[in-house]
């Protein structure tokens, strides 16, 4: 029967993909701008990369731009050009803001979210949506995996046990919540003992800090994007996305170099 053959094709293909992802080089939790950028550069470097996204769609906060105006702003265009995303120059009305010459660039939210997702998968990253990280795996003081469950099961509040995926490195790109960092601190409060949480909105230091502070915060655990701001108490920056993309690229490079030395 054709209907059951369609079902067989879906179940077999998904199962094959999932089984092949039980152990990977890198797990990226969160398919927002930083997570997708990191996944793209990791996969492009030849690393087996798995992305986990709790929502149905990828792209995180990209889609809504600012207050539902589906436009995002960047100060530099190099990463967007690499992804094939069109940008439009918007001279700044405030001296000293924007890029080196005070210029801002806009891009379409839908185009950017779609391009990041497409290029990450085309590079070889494997994205599992509707999949939520509910805990982490730590062995011998190294974070080496995540505990996952189906988003629908957790939303329904059903008592269903999760399963696990292993990785050599894990990236917390869950955004403002910094969920994996919070999970770590819940059981190891001595990690970041001063606490975590974002500061007030301030674009310039946030854009710098989200790149400069992106990196390893515990053996095996890296932070990228807005998770960086939450982890280190940096300001938030609103619908300015260049720093988040560069943050993902930086983490990918750090992980690539670290794994090359192991």
Would you mind describing this structure in some detail?
The chain is of the alpha/beta class. It is 39% helix and 24% strand. The protein contains 9 helices and 11 strands. The strands form 2 sheets. Strands 1, 2, 6, 7, 8, 9, 10 and 11 form an 8-stranded mixed beta sheet that branches. Helix 7 (203-212) runs parallel beside helix 9. The termini are far apart.
From the spread of the alpha carbons, the general shape counts as globular
**In the CATH scheme, what's the topology name?**
FAD/NAD(P)-binding domain
Element string (H = helix, E = strand): HEHEEHEEHEEEHEHHEEHH
Q: Could you name the ranges where pLDDT drops below 50 across 5 or more consecutive residues?
A: none
Strand content: 15-25%
Query: How confident is the prediction overall: mean pLDDT?
Result: 95
How many strands appear in the DSSP assignment?
Answer: 11
CATH class: Alpha Beta
Describe the sheet with the most strands: 8 strands, mixed
CATH homologous superfamily placement: FAD/NAD(P)-binding domain
Under the CATH scheme, the architecture is 3-Layer(bba) Sandwich
Amount of helix? 25-40%
Number of domains: 1
């Amino acid at each position: 029967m054709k209907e059951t053959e369609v079902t067989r094709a879906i179940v077999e293909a998904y199962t094959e993909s999932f089984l092949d992802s039980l152990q990977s080089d890198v797990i990226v939790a969160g398919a927002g701008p930083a997570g997708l950028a990191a996944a793209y550069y990791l996969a492009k470097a030849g690393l087996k990369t798995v992305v986990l996204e709790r929502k149905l769609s990828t792209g995180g906060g990209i889609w809504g731009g600012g207050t539902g105006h589906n436009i995002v702003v960047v100060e530099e265009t190099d990463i967007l050009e690499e992804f094939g995303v069109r940008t439009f120059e918007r001279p700044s009305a405030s001296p000293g803001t924007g890029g080196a010459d005070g210029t801002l660039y806009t891009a379409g939210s839908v185009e950017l979210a779609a391009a990041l997702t497409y290029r990450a998968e085309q590079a070889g990253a494997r994205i599992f949506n509707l999949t939520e990280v509910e805990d982490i795996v730590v062995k011998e003081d190294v974070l080496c995996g995540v505990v996952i469950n189906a988003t629908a099961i957790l939303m329904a509040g059903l008592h269903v046990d999760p399963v696990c995926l292993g990785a050599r490195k894990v990236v917390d790109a869950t955004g403002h919540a910094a969920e994996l960092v919070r999970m770590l601190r819940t059981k190891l409060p001595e990690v970041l003992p001063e606490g975590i949480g974002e500061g007030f909105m301030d674009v310039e230091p946030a854009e710098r800090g989200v790149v400069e502070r992106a990196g390893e915060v515990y053996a095996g655990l890296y932070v990228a994007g807005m998770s960086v701001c939450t982890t280190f108490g940096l300001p938030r920056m609103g619908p300015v996305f260049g720093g988040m993309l560069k943050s993902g690229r930086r983490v990918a490079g750090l992980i690539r170099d670290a794994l090359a030395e192991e």
